[in-house]
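Note to self: keep these together.
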Amino acid sequence: MPFAYYDKLSAARQRIYRKSDSIQTLGIPPGLALRALITQIGDALKSENRTATQSACQRLVDALLQGYRVPPVRVRVLTRRPADGYGELHGLYEPEEGKALAVITVWMRTAQRKQVVAFKTFLRTLIHEVCHHLDYELFALEETFHTEGFYKRESNLVAALLLQLAAHEEE
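Structure:
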């Protein structure tokens, strides 16, 4: 069932929404073992090292996007989330413009308490923004919407990444 804003979309945008909603699964590209990269993100976040966190995020995103065979993005990790009367911004995807790469921005600290974001929340936010990029580049959607299908793709990919991490921890 479409979200409430669906009815306010033009017919063309509703078609894009329905196409997005129909794509419900997304796994890790075949042959990618990403446990070490995921661990590096967790370790860098835990040490509260913004530069190391950004580097680790960039390496994970690069590996995923190469696996999907789509254009790269630039990942920025900033310190404290921006906030306004509506809440905190967790992540931001800015599509490519001209020759400039698309940019994913995530923040490693909450706005109010200035605490480091929990690892799984941070990873989910990063992957959420990656999914916006994949909507354009992998699925060739003209626009990226928050549909049930979008959230299912995000959840599938996060679960697959965490499964790689958990498989190692059980060894």
